[in-house]
Prior knowledge:
Number of strands: 25
Number of helices: 15
Bound molecules: malonyl-coenzyme A, adenosine monophosphate
Amino acid sequence: MNHNLFATFAERMRERDDADFITTREGQRYTYADALAASARLAGALTGIGVQKGDRVAVQVDKSPEAILLYLACLRIGAVYLPLNTGYTGEEIRYFLSDAEPALFVCRAAVLDEARRIATETGCPAVETLGTAADGSLMEKAAAATPREDIVPLGVRDLAAILYTSGTTGRSKGAMLTHRNLGSNAETLRQAWHFTPEDRLIHALPIFHTHGLFVACNVTLMTGSSMLFLPKFDADVIFEEMPRGSVLMGVPTFYTRLVADDRLTPEMTANMRLFVSGSAPLTAETHREFEQKTGHAILERYGMTETNMNLSNPYDGERRAGTVGMPLPGVEFRVMDRETRGPVARGEIGMLEIRGPNVFIGYWRMPEKTREELLEDGFFITGDLAMVDDQGYVHIVGRDKDLVISGGYNVYPKEVEQLIDELEGVYESAVIGLPHPDFGEGVTAVVVRQAGSRIDEAGVLAHLNGRLAKYKQPKRVFFADTLPRNTMGKVQKNELRKQFQDTYR
Ligand code: MLC
Ligand code: AMP
């Protein structure tokens, strides 16, 4: 049996033939037949460039239908798709390329020179460009290539993608996801969320993370439904498109912004059948307000880069505000006491662990990290703290990992602290997440100066600018004489969060 996920997608694509797959407001339109043909041409181009089964293809491009066709082409030939946040700076890209050793780096034309330089320094043999108007050197090569109509046979552990997720030590880890991981989750979600070929997903998420890439696109491909690709979230555009859409997937920031808008009414959302939220906690307040204003209960689900989607509120049945629902079919979970390593009683808080065909097979070239987090019995330690209520709904009540989630993007404080600490005049720093009305949590730095230093907020921010993606940069920098520490010498971030809790309110 061929475990190549593209084999499953291709069947659906042939069936759906001239039905829309991806459209844009700029008039781009790919039917399923178009997408099948284009993926074969892109697969031919990749082969011509020298990309082979198992090779990584690193991609840092603006959102476009062609980026998804490139993802499909990689699946087709068994190459490993490696999407990168467009916000990453050159320094951040250098790390990913040196760690993943891709056979090809696909970038935006505007940064081609820098990309070539980084590729040369990191030993990446090929660089191509891809633009948002079906342009760029990769598309030119695809137009001239001999299409590859075949689908490379793959085994059950062959990789479809590597997605980097930041590490608590400051070093990003590449989560290795197999064709089976992605395929099983897409099929599960298709069924659980009642997708049909008639669905039209309003797609406003970025396509370099699990939510916008796998949850949205793989479910669409599994179903044979269609997507309207928007470059980014823009409330005006969402409201213009809602009457022609049926599903919206978003991070909580989408919903807090929509709820605050007078255009959100039952009439406006009458054609929509489903609003999905995930990637960060949706407040019960936003959930309730959204329902009051539209009659729609947002379906909140819980997932991770390493695991795809695990838990979901029901499609039919109560969608409980402030909870992430129950395990999806095929997914097992347990809530464990971290000291005794035994399960906690219902209603008590413990570490959430997950097992299932959706769970990744390990971190790229990090066997020790993999062993620490992916246990021998197949359960993955999420780092999230959970509680199961009397109705069996799971509540994510906090995190046991030092992580800030800002507008659905993960920021690991360590990475920011390391950069601040190297700055002259800084003795030490602590980076925390504080309640933020728009982003959920706002990245904030608390800095202790060296004696005599006059470094200020602007100085710290200037140092980070260009070194760190914008969303990782603190929204505010505060100064303190010392950082609060416990008897073990560990910085008490809880204390800092309390002290600065009203910063953005
Ligand atoms: C933008 N900015 C952010 C930010 N997004 N700052 C912090 N956090 C963010 N998430 C910066 C901009 O650079 C800008 O800076 C300023 O904040 C205001 O920008 P904006 O125009 O208001 O932002 P916008 O472009 O509207 O973007 C906000 C957003 C976007 C929430 C729509 O960040 C987004 O689409 N997030 C989704 C992330 C996502 O897909 N996560 C899924 C991960 S997968 P300045 O200074 O230039 O003004 C995962 C697994 C799972 O977690 O379970 O799904
Ligand atoms: P990422 O590594 O970007 O995939 O982010 C995964 C993390 O996002 C999880 O470990 C959770 O901390 C968080 N997360 C995802 N969905 C939810 C949700 N519905 N509620 C609370 N936290 C969530």
